[in-house]
Queue: 2 jobs
Job 1
Amino acid sequence: MDKADQLYKMRHTASHVLAQAVLELFPEAKLAIGPPIDDGFYYDFDLPRSLTPEDLEQIEKRMRRIVKEDLPLVRSEKPRDDARTFVDEKAQPYKVELIDDLPEGETISFYTQGSFTDLCRGPHVESTGKIGAFKLDKVAGAYWRGDEKRQQLQRIYGILYPTQGEVDAYYERLEEAKKRDHRVLGKQLGLFMNSPIIGPGLPLWLPKGATIRRVLERYITDLELDSGYQHVYTPVLAKPELYKISGHWEHYRESMFPVMQIDSEEFVLRPMNCPHHIQIYANDQHSYRDLPVRIAELATQYRYEKSGELSGLSRVRAMCLNDAHIFCTPEQVKAEIKKVVEMVQAAYRKLGITDYSYRLSLHDAKNTEKYVSKPGLWERAENQLREVFADLELPYYEAPGEAAFYGPKIDIQLRNVLGKEETVSTIQVDWHLPEQFKLEYIGEDGQVHQPVMIHRGVISTMERMVSYLIELYAGAFPVWLAPVQAIVLPITDRHTDYANTVATQLKAEGFRVEVDSASERVGKKVAAAESMKIPYMLVVGDRDAAAGNVSVRRRGQQDLGAMPTGDFIQLIKNETAQ
Ligand code: TSB
Ligand code: ZN
């Protein structure tokens, strides 16, 4: 959302109206910040007690009164000292802190509506009557400045659109989205679980979820083997020294689990696999003739993600990445990246992912804590990626401050069912780690040279990709991915033997098949299979058994009629071969 957008201004003004309403009802409230966001706005408050749903109703009522009053929003500017005194007198310590943090020389502006004034850059709509249609949605906990060590605040969220029709449409979309939410479906379809005694962000894959994962892993491993990758296995622990050399210690430590001591040595869980693959590369001498060396692993890594950010399978603390590190000559970088882009495109075609965008994730020169600083490193690597986009004629957008600490990335961005954008596949150019580890190859000139590294994840983490696919397909996976591809439904107990014969035939052809031999009406079994989103239901009764047939029903009420079992096998083979 652009700041100049009318909708941005409406949502931003609504957050001021919310703050005014809260202050009128709770004069001792301390205000933190209140920005516009996708679908609406929020404001963080420090309040003497927890808000109840009734409070939310009262606050919303009060907001509607302020809207009716149609108060104009008036901008004013104050010198720093006056600004500070002003918010201090109003007993607003969070605002004092915000002013203290503003860089010297910055204009300090306020917006006033009626009796309420807030520190704010703007912009806003002209008056409180022009904020559109809204509804207060919920209250959630939030920390001041997102820092868990600081004050816990209450965040009130509102939904806002220009018209009531759009607000209603938002809630309808939300209802629809909830049905697709991978956390809901993951439970319903028995794909994964969490256990409080194991811990947050550490999901367990159940047999059906593990089947989907295994199919994906086989698919991508085969594709990598065809594309000249070599697969390795490496341990999930290493000594901190490894990460001190790589720079993770300096730039990535906040995302690492703490050190553990064993005997007289220290170890850490790895947050990334690159330094391990580097050790494998460095184990041999390389000539330019061997390059590129492509080292791949379905590698488990551990990251400390804040508990508030964890979500189902899409953001976890233990994850298995479809990782690879390509070691190549500087001349080979662009061609290798293009191959990876093509691999991503091929994988997405196979997975049925069509709605994605390319993000060029760049560094932020001001943030030296997050990024390594070496002369020329960023310009060279970032320009190489821009050239790849130009050569491939791919549309993309740039995102400063989203690079890895060691280099820029091509990130492939997908939206989850709630509209949240997530990075899935990633391709990264790295001139930093090869230098840190003094990697070498002998060039055509007989001299020692330094290779360049490309880090890439095509499927990304199994966790994130599967969370995305569950939502994409609303759990109704294409046949090749479905954990159970067909279920045989005997009409009565009499037909169970024949059902088992059919299942055996299908299993012999490599299909994942179950038999529902419960003593239930077949209608009930069909309903159960539909709710598990199994692609094919094979109903078998007397006539089928006599003729060697199955009566085929496709998920979603399509009756394909009776056919010889062999014909069905051909049908499902054709479908999974694509
Ligand atoms: C590609 N060293 C590189 C690797 O060689 C690397 O780790 N890159 S990464 O940090 O960007 O992570 C790769 C991908 O893992 C991301 O693009 C994202 O899709 C996925 N990912 C990152 N963090 C999480 C998480 N907490 N839960 C699930 N998936 C994650
Ligand atoms: Zn890496």
Job 2
Amino acid sequence: MRETPAVELPAPVVQREQPLVIYVLPVYDEVDGVDAFHAALVEATARRPDLRVEFVYVDDGSSDGSLDRLLELRAGDPRVTVLGLSRNFGHQLAVTAGLDLAHEARPDAVIVMDTDLQDPPAVSLELIEVWESGADVVYAQRRSRRDTLFKRTTASSFYWLLDRLAETHIPRDVGDFRLIDRRVLDVLVTYREHNRFLRGLVANLGFRQEGVLFDRDARVAGESKYPLRRMLRLAADGILGFSTFPLRLISRLGGAISALSLLAALYAVVVRVLFPAHAVPGWAFLGVGMFFLGGIQLIMMGVIGSYVGRTYVQSLNRPLYNVALVARGQETPAE
Ligand code: UDP
Ligand code: MG
């Protein structure tokens, strides 16, 4: 009879590596503010020496020398990676490019924030704390914002409308300032749609999402790169990407107009029968009706057109962005 030898297995050596958090930082013509931003971010993150922190700056085709400034930052800080896009692709694509690059480094979490100091670096530490307590996505929600009255009213009406229309619940007053855990990022990078509304996409992914309230500061330098035209485009991407309400509106309006024309027909019959002396006019009714219907039809064709346009762009399946330069940080993460 053989005795089973008592095998002592050595306790597994658990290597507790420091969690890696990568900041994804879109930059478009921020030459006057980006140094101050980086300094503030470095100062804030220094309060968490237990984390490994890296910074991915995405230069979104700046024309004011921001790229050179970023490369200088990289020379002075080995944790900085600079990604230069070949032209201005817009904030949402710049962030996407940064997320894709960050994803390659297999971080434990990424944090997206603006580089104009409107998103305070200290708040990103709060996002990290909530993430450490178990959340997968932690978004920073504006309690207050110091922007122009125009920006505040347009933004709040947009969020109101989006809340009413979107089929996914997209939290209000939340920009792209957020922390995303690795497993959510793994999924997010597989979304390759062109008309991107990232905050909607992330909300759409699910997982455990929590908010942190913060007060949005004023810009440190320069001007907003989101003029009305771009804001409207983003708003359209938000609504068309997450709601089919505009399409359903066509049939609703069609229904309402048919009901109205039925009433009008009834009116015509009543006049003809009861007040035949007044029955001749009608040109006004026809004229107004023609223009009214023509206008409605055109507006609604526009609605269809915007969906068709999206289908078209998606079917072209072009790459979302083209990278002209990758200057990685000298500190390559150990595999
Ligand atoms: N941004 C970008 N590409 C653009 C426009 C903006 O990368 O085409 C960056 C910009 O540098 C900033 C962030 O996106 O870090 C938010 O832009 P901005 O501050 O102009 O928007 P706002 O805060 O006014 O909504
Ligand atoms: Mg800003």
